[in-house]
Amino acid sequence: MDRLASLRLRDLPSVDLVLKSPAATAPLARFGHKAAADAIRIELNDARCALRAGAPAVPGADEIAVRALRRLDAADRSAMRPLFNLTGTVLHTNLGRALLAEAAIEAATAAMRDAVALEFDLATGKRGERDDHVRALLCELTGAEDATVVNNNAAAVLIALNTLANGREAVVSRGELIEIGGAFRMPDIMARAGARLVEVGTTNRTHSKDYRAALGPETGLILKVHTSNYRIQGFTAEVHAAELSGIAQAASIPLVHDLGSGTLIDLSRYGLEKEPTVGDAIADGADLVTFSGDKLLGGPQAGFIVGKRNLITAINRNPMKRALRVDKLRLAAIEATLKLYRDPDRLTERLPTLRLLARTEAEIAAQAGRLQPAMQAAVGAAFTVEACTCDSQIGSGALPLDTIPSAGLAIRSSGGGSALERLATELRGLSMPVIGRIEDNALKLDLRCLRDEAAFLSTIAGLNCDALA
Predict the structure, then answer these.
(1) Which residues in 346-377 are b (16+ Cβ under 10 Å) and which e?
(2) How far apart are alpha carbons 57 and 63 in whole angstroms?
(3) Which domains does the chain show, CATH number per domain?
(4) The model's pTM
(5) Number of helices (H) and strands (E), helices first, in the chain?
(6) What are 403's strand-pairing partners?
(7) pLDDT in tens, 74-126
(8) Which residue of 245, 246, 379, 409 has the lowest C-beta tally within 10 Å?
(9) 199: which strand partners?
């Protein structure tokens, strides 16, 4: 290191001098003395390295303090900060699935602020049951005798199997042995529940005689799984729930119907393919029905079990129930979400999931036309931005073959895929990240889930066009 560089190193301010600078007031007030001092030390060390490498300017105390504040701000930023989901997948598992209704947010917030009657009966002054907050609502909306709730649908299936078929056989069609997200497979869940899997039929065809032949004194239950995350088409056959219920009843064996995503209303009113509702499954004779809360239902993560009272009682006595129960925040949000279903005619006004699914292609295309000029200005001359048609999907395993006509922005570059990747990276780095998808040599931003145009325009104004060139 030459003498000049050594002299410049001596010009760097000390930690104490930086802490006494006017610019240090902000990091000290927001993060405290220790955190501020640690960040300043790191910035001073970086400055030393830069000077040894030939950097011409020595940063002063105020500049070091400002750099330290930026470092502390970046470290303090939540990794779960809000973002724009422009992927075209409405219920995106990696992006948190359903957006909660304002009523659910308000209910959860109220439960955060104060003590609540979670397991306390206000009428008697004695201990109550937390499931009572949603039990009556679930029964009202599904026609079931009784109901309980756990932390997700995989847990609902797990505890139902463990309660009714631990050490016994669970009969299921080979065509329904699904794998859900994260490589969790139905046979593995059944094994963890202590049930012995008995497969019947073949991958594409299962008949009533297959079930009847498999039933015996060791059978704990028949499991029917709604294949909501895939479809088998062509030369197929399955035993529908109503017929399977008759087979189960004749053998005095409970039928558990796992609906997966689950819905409380007929989705065809929104132009989507009709899915079996929970009420349909109960009417078809299932003894228990399991389904999710954070998918088509549009609430927080939860797993619901509805059905015969004696079976729900047995599940609630299972020691697993305590390990799988939900807390007061989710219960408050669940209750508020379920109450919205009492007025199905106004669901799209109040429930974000259904509102996004019900948006028309024309409405979204108009939005794309409004945003195209601003997006073109934000990305600069290195890219071209055009309004385009898109195909949205529901996501989270629901209606896997159905797409919804949508619209968005297609961004292309003569620089090819590497330029698009750089742009995608820059968009993810914005104050409110923008997440799209690269396909057909374009970065596509499907606008179906874009609710706040003003916030989007403000965010993309922060793009660094020089970094994109």
Answers:
(1) ebbebbbbbbbbbbeeeebbebbeebbeebbe
(2) 11
(3) 3-76 (no CATH), 84-93+356-468 (3.90.1150.110), 102-350 (3.40.640.10)
(4) 0.88
(5) 20, 17
(6) 393
(7) 899 888 889 999 999 999 989 999 999 999 999 999 999 999 999 999 999 99
(8) 246
(9) 172
pLDDT, tens digit (0-9, with 9 covering 90-100), for 21-74: 999 999 999 999 999 999 999 999 999 999 888 888 889 999 999 999 999 998
State CA 352 to chain mean position distance.
13
Q: What are the CA-CA distances from residue 288 to residues 145, 149, 160, 245, 304 (Å)?
A: 10, 13, 8, 11, 10
The end-to-end CA distance of the chain, in Å, is 36
Which tokens sit at 117? 């009657």
Query: Beta-carbon neighbour count of residue 71 at 10 Å?
Result: 18
Rounded-to-integer distance, Cα 115 and Cα 122, Å = 13
Residues contacting residue 437 through CB under 8 Å, at least 6 positions apart: 87, 88, 443, 444, 446
- Residues present in the chain in total: 469
What torsion, rounded to 10 degrees, do the Cα atoms 398, 403, 404, 406 define?
Answer: 120
For residues 181 and 266, give the distance between their C-alpha atoms in angstroms, rounded to a whole number.
Answer: 25
Q: How far is CA 339 from CA 154, 279, 292, in A?
A: 24, 16, 16
> How is the chain split among helix, strand and coil, in percent rounded to 5?
50, 20, 35
As a whole number of angstroms, the distance between CA 435 and CA 423 comes to 11
